[in-house]
Amino acid sequence: MITGLNHVSIVVPSLAAATRRLEAVYGLKVGEAKVNEQQGVRLAYAELGNARIELMEPTRPDSPVSKFLERNPAGGIHHFCLNVDSVDATSREMAQKGVRILGDGSPQRNVHGERIAFVHPKDFLGALVEFEETGRS
Ligand code: CO
User: Fold this and answer.
1) Could you tell me if 18 and 26 are in contact, meaning their C-beta atoms sit under 8 angstroms apart?
2) Which tens digit of pLDDT belongs to each residue from 16-68?
């Protein structure tokens, strides 16, 4: 079951420059960057109270995020993430309705250790959607 918005994710060519801009222009505080080696991305978050902005910068040329930057050199919205009560139960329920869940079916975790899954964009109105199982709502 979907319970809320967790974050909106933006791919940026430079995490440092994006952090400076969000802080200087918008007064948003961006937390410390963390690397997800598996996905080849460096991530940082601006807390909004009820949701977050996720900033992603590629750490290597073969990262999926690098391919996104080739198509969108200035960066742009990559996906948004919805809170779910259970990644497994929600993915199973959606799959029964014909929704494709990306990956090989093995459980995925984000840099905070929380369970996540991604829905094929063609099965969510053209947008890449992440599910996250979290205590936050
Ligand atoms: Co995300």
Assistant:
1) no
2) 999 999 999 999 999 999 998 888 999 999 999 999 999 999 999 999 899 99
Number of domains in the chain: 1
The first and second tokens of residue 129, run together, are 């959607």
Give the active site residue among 37, 70, 114, 130: 130
130 is catalytic: yes
**Threshold 0.85, pTM exceeds:** yes
Residue 85 is part of which domain span? 2-133
CA of 132 to the centre of ligand 1 (A): 8
Q: Tokens in use for 26?
A: 């918008």
Closest CA to 12 of 2, 20, 3, 4: 20
CATH code, domain carrying 98: 3.10.180.10
Q: What contacts 24+ positions apart, CB below 8 Å, involve 109-113?
A: 110/36, 111/34, 111/35, 111/36, 111/43
pLDDT tens sequence across 57-97 = 999 999 989 999 999 999 999 999 999 999 999 999 999 99
